[in-house]
Each structure stands twice: as structure tokens, then as C-alpha cells.
């Protein structure tokens, strides 16, 4: 059997790395925004905080309250956010085309709009106007 020349073996190794990276990229759910039903499941769905990152992408240290934070989205356009003993209710609207979610807390004079970076069955990533991101996992 003939041995491969060094340039042929480098080419083969490069091709293998390319296929490996392409396969990994295709399997990633990050950056994928699926339908609104992924947000609330059949009737409701609870999401828990996984991590928060700064606008620069640095991971922020989570406090116990942040680790306990939960957001439940309901099919009727309502949401409930809880963190420890504190809870907040409100309404939300999800714009699939613009990939944004607007949340209006009850009693608040203004809403908060986030870019939906990722929305799959088990991952939700929201990007704030300042560039920071909240990464949530489905429960």
C-alpha cells in the first residue's frame, strides 16, 4: 500500500476537521428561533435561569436569587416571574418575524423588549438592549 505524501495527509486532515466542525455547527441549537409554542408548550412552560452574560459575553456571577429565578409563559399571553419570595405578573407578546418578545409587568408604565436569540424546546436566550443576555433552560 502506498503511503500518503505529507501534503495529501494534511489535506485529508483538514477535510476531516472541516466536516467535524460543520457537523457540530449544524447540530447546535444556539441562534435557532422556533415557533412561539416552544415558549409556552401546550398551555404553559416554566424556564429557569442557566446563566447571564454581559454585553462582552463574559459570564456574570449568579446569586442564589438568580439561581432560583423562574419565568412561566402561558399560552394566553400572560407570564409570571418569580425569584425567591418575589413574584411579578404581566403580559407578553412574541413577534416571530422580528424575533422579539415584549414583556409588560402589571402596574408598570413601560414594557421591556428583548431580542430572542435562541428559542427551542429546551433553550431560551434573551438579549437585552444593552447587549447582555439571559440564558434559560426549560423545566
UniProtKB/TrEMBL annotation:
It comes from the Bacteria. This is Lipocalin-like domain-containing protein.
